[in-house]
Amino acid sequence: MRVSKRLNGVLLPFLTGLFLASVAAPASAAWTVTNLHPLGEQSSRGFGAAGAQQVGWTSSSFGQNHASLWSGSAGSWVDLNPAGSIASEAFGASGSQQVGWAVVSNTAHASLWNSTAGSWIDLDPVGSQQSFAQATNGTQQVGRMYDGTTFRASLWSGNAASWVDLNPSGSLESQAFGISASDQVGIAEVGGWTHASRWTGSGASWTNLNPAGSQFSRALATDGTQQVGFADESSGTVRAALWSGTAASWVSLNPAGSSQSEATGVLGNIQVGYAATPFQHAGLWEGTTGSFVDLHAYLSSDYMQSTAQSISSDGSNLYIAGYAFNSVMGRDEAMLWTQPIPEPTSAALLVVGGMLAMRRRR
Fold it and tell me: What pTM does this model have?
């Protein structure tokens, strides 16, 4: 019996951290890989994860992408493409929400779904020539809109009228790629270069995460405390990056011998993305370059390269969504890596028991 399913209140934040910390050595436990590619589709990619659900897109024989939702298997595939739209893609998910874009009157519109094509909500704000949603925290959504002159990092709260402009003063371009709680991350143009960026709900809240000595960088995801993405180093090589809210907190995750890497998702002490050696291999880290685990090793020899895009948990399992290139079929295929979360250690259970005893005495 899992303690996490029986406790609530003030113990939940502690227990969440405890269970994530218990996955301190993923290399020692096997990952199960599930191919999410639906039967009859030309290609597919997984991008976002929320609990035991995954989102991305599938492409038909006509070459048109459709926003897609899975629940852990190819057979669970749900086509989210709205009625009347010729194409769509989904990139992020949280709770029952999925976000991305859909073509409306030949123009991309930021889009929000609640698990069905019929639930589609158009987020495209007034004055926009095109817009895209990239991530959601279950209540708010982030992405970008183009006003005819500038791409502007954008924040929504469930409808087009709620749009908030996150573009920092003086920036000629910005985009938001990730959100968790009140933390939004992305990029903003500074001096002709795009810099990893962080916001907390307004353009004025912008924080430049670009590490010292780096010309360009990008923040792709956040768990509300840590941010991940990539930055170039003195050699000009793109390196997977981890931040804790400031530029000075930057840590390079690039594994030894890797020619390039990016971190695209984060949950607690685990970061996911890819490292190229020389082909891209999906992988995960635990905050250091030496902690890299090659998830591509769990794929068959049919797959030439792969990338992990996001990580989530339902309290029982860890889920990593991404995709891999099938060199035999000549196509990308959505992939899901799954690992059970270990039961709490005896020491951890003693701590929880002590906390419960203290609560009963109050």
Answer: 0.89
Burial 21-46 (b: 16+ CB within 10 A, else e): eebeebeeeebebbbbbbeebbbbbb
361: Cβ contacts below 8 Å, ≥ 6 apart: none
Q: What is the pLDDT of residues 92-132, one digit of tens each?
A: 999 999 999 999 999 999 999 999 999 999 999 999 999 99
User: Nearest 5°: phi and psi at 202?
Assistant: -155, 160
Return mean pLDDT, the chain. Answer: 90
DSSP letter at 12?
A: H
Nearest to 78 by CA among 118, 32, 111, 105: 118
How does pLDDT run across 161-182, given as a tens digit for each residue?
Answer: 999 999 999 999 999 999 999 9
Beta strands 331-340 and 317-326, pairing class: antiparallel
Task: Give dist(CA 85, CA 148) in Å, integer.
Answer: 22
Q: How far is CA 72 from CA 15, 77, 271, 293, 362, in A?
A: 25, 9, 20, 22, 43
Q: Which domains does the chain have, with CATH numbers?
A: 24-341 (2.120.10.30)
